[in-house]
Amino acid sequence: MGAGILLRAVQEPVFMMQHPPIINDRPIATTALEYTFYQWGFTAWAFYTIFAIVIGHYLFKRSKKVLPSSAFSAVESVFASKKHQNILLKCIDILAILTTVFGLVAAIGLGTTQIEGGLHHLFQFDFGTNGTISILFIISIVAFLSVFKGVHKGIKLISTWNIYITIALLFFVFVQGDMIAIITQFVTSLYYYIIDFIPLSLALGTYNPGEQFLTDWTYYYWAFWLAWAPFTGIFIARISKGRTLRELIIGVLLVPSLGTFFWFTVFGESAFQIIHTLSNYSGEFDNVFSSIFIFLENYPFQGMINMITILLLISFLVTSLDSAIFVLSMFTDHGKQNPSKKHRILWSIILTIFAIGILLLGNIREDIDVLIAMQKLLIITSLPFSLFMVIMILLFIKDFKKEEDTIVTK
Predict the structure, then answer these.
(1) For residue 222, which of 408, 21, 386, 403 has the smallest C-alpha distance?
(2) N or C end: fewer C-beta atoms under 10 angstroms in the chain?
């Protein structure tokens, strides 16, 4: 999510403004931000929240292992055969591992390509495939050191750094823009997003942007959130011991969503204002890999701010990779909450090799956009998991209600 909001901070709102997905009587900038909110808002965090609630319940109240299949513990009441139960649960764990790996590699591939694009823009030098792979190696080494230190001594420290620098960058842009216009736009877009959420989600009537747009944007985003749901949900559950369900929902669903909405409003509205002041805008913000860097050139200390942005992007990718390594290690080390360092080393190597392989394949086969292919593969692997998630929710509600009735009876 961190690397994504940097990647799309300017490009996506501007794209939505220039190519409105839906037509209505509202200002085009408001519709653009409303749709950006929709892509990055409650839907994404709801996937994570649901999985975190279910896995957290079985992990801490039922003492289950840290495995995706633990979220389907209530399947025991459906299948009488222990053999059939084990087969289904194993399939769920394998599918979760595959979707996590594909989602992570796609994110790392996009992120490292953006870093290379930013460096190329700043220094006017083509670092090429070797440069991109070198960046990936640096990210992998730092992520390995972080995950080797553990949750509190490694992962938490880098995550905290990310939040502080992100807030500082957000504040830097906010105070130099039209703050009244930004706040007004934030409130207006948020209001329309909330009242339009259901018709947008169902693509009803005038809220249907068309099959091509849904495939390129909405379905792809949904696939990404689903692919990351087991990993992110389990990680959230793992660090949320002692929280109430209310605290978990507020902390995971509402706070990050509102923060993301304000982020896109600050950068999006500021980009709209820059475009309006230009006598001849020629698509400077169209490139997803360089738009944020071109945007920041309109502010003081552009060189320093752009370098901080690159470091922040690297840091975000490190936290994506180190937490994924940690969670995948839990998956393969019999669901232990603190997996062995042997498993952490193994997954560090596997993910690095896989990511480098994808980048090399993209360089060798220039006629094929490998990252786009990864995105399509992500949608395919996420589809069965979406069905599993519906079953998981129904089983959990049934099991939770049964437990509640038992407590009331006692």
Answers:
(1) 386
(2) C
CA angle (156, 162, 165) in 5-degree steps: 140
Measure the CA–CA gap between 70 and 190, rounded to whole angstroms.
36
CB–CB of 101/358 below 8 Å?
no
Q: What's the pLDDT at 88?
A: 81
Q: Averaged over 47-69, what is the pLDDT?
A: 86
The domains found in the chain, sorted by start residue, are 2-409 (1.20.1730)
CA 158-331-372 angle, to 5 degrees, is: 70
* List of residues 6+ apart from 296 with CB closer than 8 A: 173, 302, 305, 306, 309
Contacts of 31 (CB under 8 A, 6+ apart): 16, 17, 20, 21, 22, 24, 192
Q: Please return the burial class of 342, using the count of CB atoms within 10 Å of its CB with bins 0-12, 13-18 and 19+.
A: exposed
Predicted pLDDT of residue 374: 66
pTM of the model: 0.88
Of residues 338 and 258, more confidently modeled: 258
Helices (H) and strands (E) in the chain, counts: 16, 0
The reported pLDDT for the residue numbered 159 is 83
Q: Nearest-CA neighbor of 29 among 211, 201, 276, 228?
A: 276
Say if residue 358's pLDDT is above 90: no
At residue 62's C-alpha, the angle toward residues 388 and 150, to 5°, is 85
Residue 279 has pLDDT above 90, yes or no: no
46 Cβ contact partners less than 8 Å away, ≥ 6 residues apart: 253
d(Cα 100, Cα 353) in Å, to the nearest integer? 15
Separation CA 27–CA 17 (nearest Å): 10
Residue 152 pLDDT: 67
Measure CA of the first residue to CA of the last residue in the chain; give whole Å: 44
Which pLDDT belongs to residue 116?
81
H-type alpha helices, 208-254: 211-213, 219-238, 245-249
